[in-house]
Amino acid sequence: MRAICWSLLLVGCLTLSATAHAKAAEPERIEIAEIASLIAEPPRLVVRVGEQAHLLITAKLKDGFDTDVTDQATLSPSASEAWKVEVAGGVRALKPGTETLVAEFAGQRVEIPMEIVAAPADEPPTFLRDVLPVLSKAGCNAGACHAKPDGQNGFRLSIFSYDPKSDYDEIVKDARGRRVFPSAPDESLLLLKSTLALPHEGGERFDKDSDAYRALVQWIRTGMSFRAEKEPALVRLELFPRERRYRPESTQRLLVHAHYADGSMRDVTALASFDSNDKEIASVSEEGVVRIGKVSGQAVVVGRFMGVVGDSQITVPAERLLPPERYAALPVRNFIDELAYARFGQLGLFPSEGCTDPEFLRRATLDTLGILPSPEEARTFLDDPAPDKRERLIERLLAHPAFPDFWANKWADLLRPNPDRVGVKGVYLLDQWIRESFRANKPHDQFVREIVLAEGNTHRVGPAVVYRDRREPADLTTMFSQLFLGVRLDCAKCHHHPNEKWGQDDFYRMAAFFGPVKQKGAGISPPISGGNETFFFATGKPVKHPVTGETMEPKPPDGPELKPAENADPRRALADWMTNETNPFFARAIANRVWAAFFGKGIVDPVDDFRLSNPPSNPALLDALAAEVVREKFDLKAMMRTILRSQLYQLSGTPNETNRADTRNFSRSYRRRLPAEVMADAIAEVTGVPNTYEGMPPGSRAMQAWTYKIDSRTMDAFGRPNSSSDCPCERDVKPSIVQSLHLANSRSLHSKLKSTETSARVHRLATGELPPAEVVTELYLACYSRRPTDEELTLATAAFSTPGATRRTATEDIFWALLNSAEFVFNH
Amino acid sequence: MSLHRNCAGHTRRDFIQLGLHGALGVGLCDLLRMRAHAETTSTFKPSASAKNVNCIMIWLDGGPSHYETFDPKPDAPAEIRGSFKTIPTAVPGVHFSEPVPELAKCFDKFTVVRSICHKDPNHGGGNHYMMTGAPTPVPVNCGASVTFHPSFGAMVSRERGVRSGLPAFMASPDNTRSGGPNFLGGQHAAFAIGGYPNSPNFEVSDVVLPKEIAEGRAQGRRDLRTALDRMQRFNDKLVEDPAVVFDEFYQQGFDLVSSPRAQAAFDIHREDAKVRDRYGRNDMGQRMLLARRLVEVGVSWVTINWGGWDDHRELFKAYKGDKMKNLDQGVSALLADLHDRGLLANTLVLVLGEFGRTPKVNKDGGRDHWPHAMSVLMAGAGIPGGQIVGATDAQGYHASENIYRPEDFAASIYTKMGIDPHQTLQTTTGRPVALVNEGRLIRELFV
Questions:
Q1: C-beta separation of A817 from A779 below 8 A
Q2: Is this prediction's ipTM beyond 0.85?
Q3: Residues A496 and A551 in one domain
Q4: Confidence class of residue A601 from pLDDT cuts 50, 70 and 90?
Q5: Predicted confidence (pLDDT) at residue A548 exceeds the cutoff of 80
Q6: Residue A337 is assigned to a structural domain of this protein
Q7: Does the pLDDT of residue B318 top 90, yes or no?
Q8: Does A146 touch chain B (CB under 8 A)?
Q9: Which domain holds residue A283?
Q10: Rounded CA gap, A711 and B191, in Å?
């Protein structure tokens, strides 16, 4: 058995004798593995005369890895009367018959039986099966080209082919039939333009010697049928390999098979388009060649063909996996840790050390309450020798009066309408309803039910305001599916979701639940929307499919036919389905949101974008969390407790050799900038000088602000969401120049340091009796929840003896320095 | 095939890189631009000088009347032409209305486009259309502040990035209703310069040291911060440590505060008293002066948000008052000053509101909303002086010659600033969006 060399494969070198050369170039990459066998996918080919079929040739190695050798393997015989090899792994069938192909590589061989069948004579190409895929692959209906809202130069196609009939008419019937010329297909404008025989702004899309060209010519010549009489529907796309582990910097060809309702299959590799969810781990070319990057991790490559998607799962383990004993020695507090370590084991990640007490105190308080611990709380916690002090802290946090506003604010981000649109009173009422819900620790399913089923007057019923804002069934569909199910159906409003299975049917059947929601009262017409209206259920007003005009029966995406009774509000059936414990989306979506609030990112991230091409970083963990949410009857505090207690949450942010590149598996804590409201409140709290907000009672915190219109330069700088922007947006959490300038120089922070109010911390410390070292210690406890190290104490107290410094200026300056440091600005 | 598009959006890492590169002056914009170039066969080739063009946009919120400024209709019936006379301008044969005498005198420095129009008669929608180049996808109220699409300033900020610590996009006293960044993200929101620049104690907040902090003490503070900011930084790019980006911004922020040139620019009190007089000793005049000082040191986009142009009542009385006088004086002084300093060639000046006003004077002596005709003043960055582009009909009802849409206006602005108007952006959900949908250039601005 011959050995092969990884670095050779990645440069695509064919000769195996060049090992020495590669070794000299990059000796550390050399790794020897032995080939156990060679396999072919598919194991057997069925192909029509004239068509091309593709094979994947894979070397199975003794170390458990597989490697794609399609490009290196030889296919023999390379040509015969019945077929010819056109590209690596690609064979074109020429004559009917039963044949055998042999693939050989490195002394191994595999036989592939091949059945070549005659192309049916009475089956001319159709627009749906043969033409539209070609145009899509050529990019004609790209958003920047003929699928722009107004088309391009009078030729308009539907984006992602959502309206094939209109595309057909556009080509065959529009422009006075100039685009196709059946008596001389080669003279069709469609072909002249795309081959650049005539000037075409989009350049050459294919040449005259391509399958694409031949398919179009053949279709035009044979009468341009739209679809064959019994043309089977495309039901499924299959990618080869379905899942595989890879070495860094290796390559892999993909194959795409389309499966039809009648059981037939078609190789659509050349017509599919591809996309990777993480281009650093794996990029994919337009031909479906995956290139694995240098970092370990997981990725998904999605193949797309005519609105149907399939996936190929990619795992790139770390160069070195760790022995199980190392994980066995780690502390396990609950199932989170067990499932996380299991994942780490597969990926070669080892978790960082546990965090320190001050880190835990500050992090847990910020994540649970959005406030900083006071210096007194910090002292008490740090000096507490009890081994269960973290558990006791967690209980205090979950019962803290700041809890409801912090969590309500997260939902207000997503639900809060623009007061210019729905009126100030409605916005306020909805805000108060959300806060009240969290004060009552309303179970999440009930919270969502009350929104989905909202009825009544927008000046009385908070959640009804959501309906005033999202006035159309389509708007509600987008919002509710994204917020409560974690599914972005928005794309499917107009066309097939490019990377998911959702189509317009899914969208408008979901929308049909909201058709019978009626309103009466003052709408949102100009010039102001201060009025109120009442929302209620009344039969009628069905939702129609925008392309077919068909009346849609309500059905949730991927859900069962619910068949609500004729005179019943169908939203009840929807709410029952959503909040049912077996719902595949609901519990996962909220578990993931809560997780992201504590870890800085979701197990599925973005948190509201669950899809095939955006898989969870740890599916088992997400499932277990969702199960717990269900078990705890949607009391989210129970899940928060589990999270806070886990070792995973209590990890340090300092990376080790194995996990420095891990940014999605939570093997270390990720630093996060304090959000806008938290920052504004933290500054007020640590300086002892409260903020005042227009239209809010004295002593109100930023976390209680109910509209972005309440002036705050600090909150603006730190990216509070602006509800005049049209989306339920995730917050901007990036650092920016404006933030640095604001913290360093702003009048408001300056005046808080200069304040002579009795509550002001600087004033109190400067006019008090504490020795400098204790002044410094209090500032450290206030800003960082820890005491200074000896070295820090020396450096900081030196500020008191700087020439010209007073006790006051030194306190101000040290405080300023701490407030402008990363340790303050970040939750770490 | 080169046209295959990718709709999956950016990877997480793309966004993290934005932070890093943004700090270093190459941002996601470059990434996107490269991608846009790869995806479409864009032939956009900005001139080298376009990349240095900055813009001052004077936004007259509410919608100024085209009749009583740059498009008088002296031959229309009395209920349309109103009570003002026309006045000659620096260009023989072209007349303005009497409230803008100073602008009439310096018409040789700017173009008036009389034929930009749209169909949205609400302030909210009109604002959005003219401030972003994109119409609102749904009707919005008059009182509305909405954003569905990035504003010019935000887009410019993304393309230009932070230069020597200066935010690229500033607005004074605050941002306009639809001036937000939308999906470009909060770091491209306008840096607001509030306050009253005509007041003796005016200072620009956040970019200058508080007055009581002398330079020596500020240095001491910075040293102290350097000594005490000890949280470990992970410079390995793979770690994606946001504190590293944070450091970049702090360094730039300190550079800005210690740059004598930038600090001088923010201090309007250092301006020659005669120059200050020339702009008019009022807040709006002084804002224009401040805007000049800002673009002079490299701020890319300054919006002056000037409300109060929604004259449904007693328009003629209002236009005889200070508002119009201040506008006329301020804008003409700005153009003359930019010209005298040799800055007009790389400063684009825009004066406009969301729409024009109704032809018939209403019963209250005012004019109502009218998007079918409006006048837009455009100057600098190679735009010819003394030029009227397009025309409205004899009574000023509709743009009637060389009609341009807001998309064309947007495409022209971006092109003047060296930004490809036909690039495709991606929203945070990965949806591709044309920066400007089908905008063509206003040819007369590019001669």
A1: no
A2: no
A3: yes
A4: very high
A5: yes
A6: yes
A7: yes
A8: no
A9: 234-316
A10: 14
